[in-house]
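Extended Data, panel c. Modelled sequence:
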Amino acid sequence: MRPRALLPALAVIALGLAASCTSVLDRDTQSTQALRAAGYPALVPAEDLTASVPPPAITPQTARDLDARANGLRARAERLRAEGVDAGTKARTQAGVGG
């Protein structure tokens, strides 16, 4: 093997060794100590939390809108099924999937 071919491998090894010398543990220790020193969050009654939640936006019209959308999607699916797939597209699809 030519020595020049070994240069990229040696560079990768050198970078790996240099990266392993950094101290990640110091940062983890500092953040853990900061979390331990932090106080507990204030406890509040559940009623205070739920009071700021807006009421549901479901109305009698919502059901009619959803039914109309579902019927439209069913009609679209039926149209797509009725159109079918031409022989050329079907052959290409099966050739791509099966082999």
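The longest helix spans residues 60-83. This feature is highlighted in the accompanying rendering.
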